[in-house]
Fold this protein.
Amino acid sequence: MLRFDRRLLLNFDWVLIGAVLAVALVGLANIYSSTHLYTNVGTPLYLKELTYYLFGAAVALLIVSIDYRVLLTLNYPLYIGMILLLLFALVFGKTIAGAQRWINLGFFRLQPSEPAKLILVITLASYYYRKETGKGFTLLDLAVPALLTGLPFILIAKQPDLGTGLLLGFIFVSMTLFVKLRWTTLATLLCGGLSAIPIAWKFFLKPYQRQRVETFLNPENDPLGTGYHIIQSKIAVGSGLIFGKGYLQGTQGQLDFLPERHTDFAFSVWAEEWGFFGSVLLIICYFFMILWGLNIAISARDKFGVLLAFGVVSLIFWQAFINLAMVMGLLPVVGVPLPFISYGGSSLLTNLAGLGLLMNIRMRRYMGTS
Amino acid sequence: MPPRPLAKINKIDPAELKMLKKRIDIAMALIIVSAALLLTRLWYLQIYRGDEYAKLSEINRIRIQEIAAPRGNILDRTGQPIITNRPRFNVVWNREDAPNPDEVIKDLAKILHEDISVLLDRIRAATENPRYMPTRLKEDIDWETLAAIENKHLTLPGVRIEVMPSRDYLYGDFASHLVGYLAEISPAELKEKQYASYQSGDQVGKQGVEKIFEQYLKGEKGRNYLEVDVHGFQQRQMQLQEPFPGNDLHLTLDIELQRVAEEAMADKAGAVVVMEVNTGNLLVMHSSPPLHLQEFVGGISQTAWDRLLNDPLNPLLDKTIQGQYPPGSTFKIVTALAAISEGVITPDATFFCGGSLNFGNRRYGCWKKGGHGTVDFQRALIESCDVYFYSVGMRLGVDRIAKYANNLGLGKKTGIDLEHEKSGMIPSTAWKQQRYKEKWQEGETLSVAIGQGYVLTTPLQLCRLTAAVVNGGTLYRPQLVSSVTAPDGKTMKTFSPVSEGKILGSAHSLGLIKEALVGVVNSPGGTAKVVALPDVLIGGKTGTAQVVRLAQVEGLGEKAIPYKYRDHAWFTSFAPAEKPEIAVTVLVEHGQHGGSAAGPVAKAVFKKYFELKNGNKTAPEATPPPVAPDEKEE
């Protein structure tokens, strides 16, 4: 079944593996630090995360072994499966912190909005690959990808999970800008987008979402309520100083001052304990991985590979950028995890699968037409 | 994947690759810019404003819990503890730890013998407090309740016992007015400068030496540095700074003597003051009825307070320093000293007492209606002849009497280390002019000469006066505290006797008075023969202070006079006569007779004093000579 070419192994991307391993180690150590005091029952979370890593690595290996071009035929079944999962989550999903995001699989609670991001990347890459236009896309050409993005966006925003929903939007915009747009299309979209903001503010945002944005603009208004996250996170990051408080010594993280410290605010824990030094190291490592992903994109053997790799990179980049900017108080608090660092099986599996795709594309860059 | 052939995909064409590469370069540039933005932000937070955030994180995690310091002990002059500290157990409630609070509170109410609504009210009152702060449900539970709660510990989640140091009154209400009590600091006190280091909820001395010597007694609070989580719940103790106990206060009081005085006054309202005549140290300071100090622990209840306020015996008044009474015949000591010193009489000069003296158009009676006949200086004092002192007073005039009275420390505060001391009253012509814009009436001098009229003294003033007259003429400032010692035993401060100077009057005149005062107790006509002890020579002077003008109760039998109209009874005394050591002053409110009401109290004190001094040898009781029933001494 597997036509595994020995040449593929020669093309194995050790740089990418090295970068991911480095970030993964940071992630695991950090989860241990932020949860070891509070998990009294069941498997410690860092061990769970390690299990997800191993499982994810297996999934990635499986993906690597299958030529990515198969996705061109599988994209719509995958897309439909994703939509069904999102609908299922919305109807039967488990409510955690007021949001219906999870599907209980018994051994694992799947958050379908996570794989949805990657499936959207695959779908858009497939669409844009097929829809080749010399002079660039018109507004009408964009109707289909906009619909393809809009449907999961609505389902996810309804959960409600605005962060992931917006992320889909960012992926759509990034990938659409990457393929050629007509100038007129770009101008129309810009104007339309800008005028849509006040309408969305008024009609589509839930009160808590509006409050988050307002809080972001002025966190000290409500230091114990909605501004609490931002203030505590900034204190955690800032008090790390140059070399940090030391591993397991971060008071903000260890003492429960920092909310969601092993998930969305994992970087705050890292920054507090390892300081400017450790944070810069992590960010450099991270962005090296992202830039390396772009390198993979441009070296792909075909346009589908380029689009797919670019989509995966934009997925990881936007999550990382939004999360980091959020914990440092540059963006409002939206629930976007930091890939490979934040605790969470669904997110980790999705991102590892994305890396598997990158590796897949990288390894097949010299292959001929088959 | 054979069954599903891969889509036909051509390699990327070079022209398109070039275009895509350009866009990838743009994307790379944007990514690097965003990385730079994040790094700049990181630098801003961690380095540029890092110290600020580091400070914020410190405040965030450390809660300082203050630990009350054990207050200094209060000891008597022999070093025996009078007031120490004991642990006080409070029942507190931490709702976070209780899964089913309703059940627990119901069970707890039964154990505490409280109505469940009382407990619920307390919990409701505390809803505004931070969640980590336990709610106090009941203060100062007894051992039995404590044991019951400890036994049911497992079935009472959320219920805990809090231990606080609290005052332990080893001798109950012993010297209650003098030692005073503690209570929570009031908002008004918190604003005062002397309480700058106090916090709301602290216990502070409210009265007596507990208040005056607060700074010595309070000690240094300890601090518990607790690391807490965001909810305020304690995670671990980072540092414990033990409290430093307060300093011990050594009173001049003598436990044994004070207890004898308190027992003797048990069924009477009034005061007993005992002073060492050569130091001014107070051995006994008792005001009756005493305060029940236990009632004040943890705050006095409104009903108990109302009861104190409305009690006709006025327990809230410290009668030793705040009770102002006409001194009655005890004041004859002052008049006698003034008369002898001013030379208006000689000791041998005699006056005839026919039972009354007519002055102006008023008749001034002697307490002995039949009269004393011919009396000289000695007999006048011994038998307390009013007519003699009317005559002497007239010769002196009120201002000369006032001069001697003031000189003996009357009419002004003694300067004892207690608050709210009253100064008493010694009238003079100038005073009356100023106060009433009226001329002094000569007849009023007659009243003053026998300690009535406007004259008012406190028991402490009379005691000090007596001490000064018999110690050779030195007026000492009354002292309550002899020293303050640190918990390690080191002496921090000692209080030496403070002399306020020599009183007027030669040693000879003082000797004459002393001799007469011994006669009061020991000679056949003396008004205080009941006080005499077989092997110690006691001297003293009785006094009866009119509460209302005689006319209002005239004709009524002694028992028929309503309690509040009965005369106050005084007895001020000293012993041993040869070389006086202590002065004892007793006031019995509405006791009617100085000799028979106040005398026995003084006698009990003297007896105990000399017993203690002579190694607990009990002196055989002598049968007191009978007092003539038809005579009422003044």
